[in-house]
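Quarterly update from the structural biology core.
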Amino acid sequence: MIKSPQLKIALVQTNLYWKDKVANLAMLEEKMWEIDNGVDLIILPEMFPTGFSMDAAELAEPMNLNVCKWMRQMAAQKNCTLTGSAIIQVEGKFYNRLLWVSPDGMIQHYDKRHLFRMADEDQSFSAGERLPIFELNGWKICPQVCYDLRFPVFSRNRMVDGQLAYDLIFYVASWPAARVSAWDALLPARAIENLSYSIGVNRVEADGNGVLYNGHSAAYDFKGNQLEFLEEGEKITVFNLEAEALDSYREKFPAWMDSDNFLIK
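Predicted structure, tokenized:
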């Protein structure tokens, strides 16, 4: 499928109610109705129904329960794809699962690969084993979650059938203000090294553990140029990614043809 000329994206940078799914889904529904129709993709932060909690057994739910049903409903009503991560239980294991929900109700997912051991995430959750590439209007899109940003090998944009695997890489996050300088540096780095657009969506304010988040949700083009930057506070931004600009740059500067081939086990 040929890429659509533009991909219209909305980023929702918000505070989250601590471990309160009902309040968060109601709040996010109100915010999403502020977004004009015609958006292709809405991106929410990491663990948007609960905040970044390690109380997996308390907060998890199976696929196709309340969170998935709400995402299906909102994707259908807004006629767009909706994504963000939630705590999901599968066969006795807990995952920080990024859900990718199409307006027709189809759900795909990516389970966070790199678990943040400094918060004992690796003690509460199981790591993902595969990296899917989603497709939206002909655009190939690579999903990532927060701490994944620090591990570029896993997300390297390699050649598949003679072309790059994806056009956009995005990160849903609960990235603390104390380390936001790394967030600001690594998001454009991922864009440059992968010759792709790069997006990060972070939350704001303090969570129930007293950890402070200050947003800095942003989008960068394939040269690392900043397209959007939300700074601090609750904000929503809507913008377009341009296919012709991306494809033209890749043709004029085909550094991807000299990349190293490798396998991840």
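The two ends are 30 Å apart (CA to CA).
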